[in-house]
């Protein structure tokens, strides 16, 4: 799981990692998906019915205790309108309906750094002190 120095390797991240809980529900919490190709997808908490960013897509690498993320595009909900929903979300019971999902290329590709650590005795990691549990290989 770690190299001789105790650092995470890129292969240790492969799969899907959900914030806060290892259990899957009807919608996901903040989730990272790391792929063998060096690509990542981040999906924000689906319980926020007013969230217009559906995903952030880009490249990742690891160096020692740092995770480097370079977003190159987003999937965003464009248009639509807010309605009261039957589902309680993080935004009270508001959600956006009738929007269109559009891929938006980032005008600047900025390398973002985060501190990453393995959490001992758990199938979990910490990214900038936020705990993520492995939910899928």
Instruction: Report the structural category.
Output: mainly beta
Summed up, the domain count is 1
Any idea what the CATH architecture is?
A: Beta Barrel
Distance, first to last CA: 14 Å
| Biggest β-sheet description | 8 strands, antiparallel, barrel
CATH fold description: Lipocalin
Helicity range: under 10%
Q: Could you tell me the mean pLDDT?
A: 91
Strand order in the sheet with the most strands = 1-2-3-4-5-9-10-11
| Strand segment tally | 11
Q: How big a fraction of the residues is strand? A: over 45%
Task: Name the descriptors.
137 residues, single chain, two-stranded antiparallel sheet, mainly beta, eight-stranded antiparallel β-barrel, disordered N terminus
Gist of the model:
This protein has 137 residues and is an all-beta fold. It contains 1 helix and 11 strands; from the N terminus they run αβββββββββββ.
Describe this protein's structure.
Helix content is 3%, strand content 57%. It is mostly beta strands and 137 residues long. It has a single domain, classed as Beta Barrel (Lipocalin). An 8-stranded antiparallel beta barrel has the order 1-2-3-4-5-9-10-11. Strands 6-7 form a two-stranded antiparallel ribbon. The longest helix is centred in the first third of the chain and has 4 residues, at 10-13. The radius of gyration is 16 Å and the shape is globular. Mean pLDDT is 91; it is low at 1-5.
């Amino acid at each position: 799981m770690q190299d001789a120095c105790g650092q995470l390797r890129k292969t240790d991240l492969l799969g899907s990692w959900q914030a806060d809980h290892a259990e899957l529900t009807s919608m996901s919490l903040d989730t990272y998906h790391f792929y063998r190709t060096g690509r990542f997808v981040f999906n924000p908490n689906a319980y926020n019915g007013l969230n217009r960013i559906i995903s952030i897509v880009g490249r990742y690498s690891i160096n020692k205790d740092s995770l480097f993320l370079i977003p190159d595009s987003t999937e965003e909900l464009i248009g639509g309108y807010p309605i009261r929903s039957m589902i309680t979300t993080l935004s009270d019971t508001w959600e956006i309906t009738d929007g269109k999902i559009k891929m938006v290329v980032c005008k600047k590709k900025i390398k973002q750094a985060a501190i990453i650590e393995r959490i001992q005795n758990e199938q979990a990691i910490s990214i900038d002190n936020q705990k993520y549990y492995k939910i899928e290989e």
